[in-house]
Amino acid sequence: MGEDIAANLAGIKQRVADAALRSGRSADAADLLVVSKTWPAENVAEVVAAGHLAFGENRVQEGEEKIPQLPDHLQWHLIGHLQRNKVRKALPLFQTIHSIDSLKLARYTSNIAGEMDKKPDVYLQVDLAGEESKNGYNPDKLRTELDDLLALENLSILGLMCIPPMASTPEDARPWFVKLRELRDELEQHAGRSLPGLSMGMSGDFEVAIEEGSTIVRVGSAIFGSRTYH
Description:
The chain is α/β, with parallel strands linked by helices and 230 residues long. It has helices at residues 2-22, 41-49, 60-66, 87-90, 103-115, 139-150, 170-191, 206-211, 221-224, and strands spanning 31-35, 54-57, 75-78, 96-100, 121-125, 156-161, 197-202, 216-219. It is built from nine helices and eight strands. The radius of gyration is 17 Å and the shape is globular.
């Protein structure tokens, strides 16, 4: 299995670089976040052995079990919904949080981060399609609350994140990636500061996301294979 994972990882990294070059950016313009949710530490260790250091988990509880089993120098990102009652547990584990979706959660996270002498990198999750089943900021609400978010001292806001509606083809997802990029550009103008990060694109559509400006893609099954959910 190790050879398969290493080969899959190398193939995905090449596709990430090629997509960035197609978009007129440098080959290293988009980072690869390997989504390790549901995979045990020994599988993650195979990816580490192949030279990759950045991983994404959906649940704080799974991170609590897995992260201590792996080398200390890895970078861990929380990509799933962050519940308020999990913030204290999440901050020591994850350097980056992709799922801040309200001013209330952001303020609470900033306050706890201050207590713990931490300043996590965060993305603001946006629900572009207004799907009730998904967490995320309504774009209009984000516009009105952006100044308050940027004023929080203990959060380093990198940019925006989205999970587009289910799409039949990667091309069907493209308009949502365009919308997120355009929203980010608008918010930058409003705030008068850079929001360089766009966390968008997963195993099925990451190349299209990169072509539309993604700076970090979340890929798991294309590296590990099909998941077994417990």
